[in-house]
Amino acid sequence: QRPKNFPPGPPKLPLWGSYWFLLKENYNLSHLAMAALGKKYKTDILGLFLGNFPAVVTLNIELSKELLTREEFIGRVDTILVRTRSFGDLKGIFFADGPVWKEHRRFSLRHMRDFGFGRRSDVMENFISEEITYLIDFLKNEPKEKDLNVCKSKGHVLVPDVFYGSLINTILSVLTSTRFDHHEVRQYAKAALKFMKCEDATGGAICMTPWLRFLAPDYFGYTSAVRDNRFIQKFLTEIIEDHLKTFSDDHHRDFVDVFISETLRQGVDLDQTQLLMVVLDYMFPSPIGLGHTLSFYFAYIINNPDVQVKVHEEIDRVVGQSRLPHLDDRKNMPYVEASLRECLRILPVTPLGLPRRCVQDTTLGGYFIPENTIMWANIWSAHRDETIWKDPEEFRPERFLDEDGNLLKKDHTIGFGAGKRLCAGETFARQTMFLILSGLLQNFTFKSPNGKPICIDVIPGVTLSLKETWILAEPR
Ligand code: HEM
């Protein structure tokens, strides 16, 4: 039964409810399907049924911000895929709820700061600089045999794969103080990506009708969800177990040590699954969120050479060639910052964010929203809200600058979500992306290998990614 005064939208059909209508609008990309249905029903707030579950999607910036910031929408959604990744439970941060979520989000953010996460830190900046220096050398030299899958010849590289090693190493420096050979850790980024892809159109089906996992586990992505998660978890479990063997309360090397120390202090047994899931929740968005945003960034500046010229000019003027860009340069480089903001606006890597759950009966936009409704802020649509951004399909960093070229104080984008469940890695993400892209652009001009514009064609999933994309880095 459609609740009284529920937002407008397609009817509920047998088995998958209104999901059939999403598939009909766009089989692969749900954010586009939802935007199209919004137009069809002439609404900025769409009411659907995913199987038997009511779901609501906001499509403009105002309603999306309201959804993300109101306490009634602070819950997360419990699905078979979410439980599959955390051993049948809801551990970690991403998909946890209530006191467990609150305690671990607060604890991890407070203590990861001590290792440079989410703040201005020389230790962290030096670590990233070493990784950038490695990348610069990698792009300037002929590839080794083992790297041919990400580098065909000098400077001819596959994105985002070429960034995966640096991104995983950077976040692991905080979590586990380990550094790996890029070739070795790239496979974990690939596995994380495969899991994120399970929640495409077919992953949606398995969440609504979990019995499909027994019928056709391969087709509906269940096999991959289990196998690829366990693969990353095994890698992290070995690191955690090594920490347990070598732990000393006199010197905490990283976040894992702090977590172990806290359980000792409280006199409770170590919840190793919880520790594993927290580490996993901070580890995998790094190659996925950052890696894919960086690959979009390079695709857009290759296709918009005038933007690349302006970015080069600003780096040369503010930093020069004698040292790598620092975080202190960021405030003096509004154009570089604006170009990154524009990339995050035009192609948000999580176009629907992470679904929220309504925790009590309420109203939104004048409509009734029952408890346990699945809530999506369609970030992709909100970033095309013409009341704020004119010609939203154009890649134009200037929209984030005033007439004097200064960065506008207010950034209306919501690519990192908002409110109390705002992305826990936002500061780290913005800092790391700034350092990597400005360091690389200081040293290279990026081009398309065949001289034609890069095709910005995305593969669906919870996060979007570019189809296999090779780019060319020419030393400046
Ligand atoms: C361009 C990069 C990234 C984007 C666009 C992004 C975006 C998002 C979004 C939209 C959410 C949901 C927020 C909400 O519900 O309001 C989220 C949550 C989260 N993100 Fe990110 N993210 C990025 C990178 C990262 C990185 C690098 C990390 C960690 C190192 C991270 C850690 C998290 C965590 C732990 C959550 C769950 C927060 C919670 O539920 O309390 N993210 N992110």
From TrEMBL:
Its main location: endoplasmic reticulum. GO terms for biological process: organic acid metabolic process; xenobiotic metabolic process. PROSITE patterns: CYTOCHROME_P450 (PS00086). It is found in: Endoplasmic reticulum membrane; Microsome membrane. The keyword Endoplasmic reticulum applies. Heme binds at C423. The keyword Ligase does not apply. GO terms for molecular function: heme binding; iron ion binding; oxidoreductase activity, acting on paired donors, with incorporation or reduction of molecular oxygen, reduced flavin or flavoprotein as one donor, and incorporation of one atom of oxygen; steroid hydroxylase activity. It comes from the Eukaryota. Coiled coil: none annotated. Its cofactor is heme. It holds the Pfam family p450. Keywords: Endoplasmic reticulum, Heme, Iron, Membrane, Metal-binding, Microsome, Monooxygenase, Oxidoreductase, Signal. One of its GO terms (cellular component) is endoplasmic reticulum membrane. SUPFAM superfamilies: Cytochrome P450 (SSF48264). Transmembrane segments: none annotated. It is a peripheral membrane protein. May be involved in the metabolism of insect hormones and in the breakdown of synthetic insecticides. This is Cytochrome P450 monooxygenase CYP304E3. It comes from Tenebrio molitor (Yellow mealworm beetle).
